[in-house]
Amino acid sequence: MRLGIDMDGVMCDFNAGWMRLHADEFGSALRPEMVTGWDGLHELAGFAEMEAFWRWARETPQRPSIFRHLELFPGALEAMEALSAAGHDIVVLTAKPAWAVADTMSWLADHRVPTSEIHFIADKHTVACDVYLDDAPAVLDDLVAHCPGALVCRMVQPWNRPVAGALDVHDWAEFADAVTARRRG
Question: What pTM did the predictor assign?
């Protein structure tokens, strides 16, 4: 099966990554559990608006963008390797700004994510997959609405909410079990 998998908040810990970089640059003591909503990172980080957060997030002459500073969530790589070995295609679906593409490609290569298909896209429903895994509230709503034949899985995070028609998964082991059950079903 084709497994459409999001990156930030699903495959890798976006909040811990940007907070580590923020601490290095500003001396902050932010923690990932402080993020409880989808919008508002700029306020937590001390920026006047989200555009200022994203300007800071970009690559500078001193460092790569924040997208090179992210760690895999526990079990993510192992689950993707096992799913790939079982014959599933890992399709990376990520909505990133154009300036983040090079760092994202490097990150995927550095972590040896088992994929040969990567889409930088906001409308993830336009990439046909049998199973989707995402954390973004609007994306989940969109996938459920536009992909009725697919299994849509919500990676449960403090910043999202249950979505009617989506299956909640709390970790990568639950996701792998859901894929296996879907294949048998």
Answer: 0.95
